[in-house]
Amino acid sequence: MLVTGGTGYLGSHAVAALAGAGHRIRVLARSAEKVPAALGPLGVDGVQAAVGDVTEPAAVERARSPGATRWCTFALATSPTPRRTHVSRSRPLACLAFTPPPPSPY
């Protein structure tokens, strides 16, 4: 299962719950060091880190594990300057059946 936003407060706690339920998880983070720093205090280890930015569709596709069927996102764009990305600011945080992000029209 690919998780974006897994190093934030909500996402790291969701990763802990998912790992505790036996799911194999890969976290997409801008820095690999953020993954154990966020999850270690919650007693979570063995989570794979994929380095990339959720705002880059190619990074999300590269981070996807072969055979992954779920993509859980706990990431929100919080930049004061709107950025055109495949991540909608209004999309609810949820686990979705994995489909690659659509090509950007920009």
What does this protein structure show overall?
- By secondary structure, the chain is α/β, with parallel strands linked by helices.
- The protein has a single domain (2-78, 86-97), classed as Rossmann fold (3-Layer(aba) Sandwich), CATH 3.40.50.
- It is 24% helix and 18% strand.
- The protein contains 3 helices and 5 strands, in the order E-H-E-H-E-H-E-E.
- Strands 3-2-1-4-5 form a 5-stranded mixed sheet, with helices on one face.
- Strand 2, helix 2 and strand 3 form a beta-alpha-beta unit.
- The longest helix is centred in the first third of the chain and has 12 residues, at 9-20.
- The chain is globular, with a radius of gyration of 13 Å.
- Mean pLDDT is 76; it is low at 77-93.
Profile the largest sheet.
Answer: 5 strands, mixed
Shape-level CATH architecture: 3-Layer(aba) Sandwich
Structural class: alpha/beta
CATH class: Alpha Beta
- SSE run: EHEHEHEE
Query: Spatial order of the strands in the main sheet?
Result: 3-2-1-4-5
Low-confidence stretches: 77-93
In total, the number of strands is 5
CATH topology title: Rossmann fold
Mean pLDDT: 76
Looking at the structure, what is the overall shape?
Answer: globular
The total of helices stands at: 3
Q: Helix proportion of residues, in percent?
A: 10-25%
Number of domains: 1
Task: Give the SSE map.
Layout: E1 2-4, H1 9-20, E2 26-29, H2 34-39, E3 48-51, H3 57-63, E4 70-73, E5 94-97
Parallel strand pairs: 1-2, 1-4, 2-3
Antiparallel strand pairs: 4-5
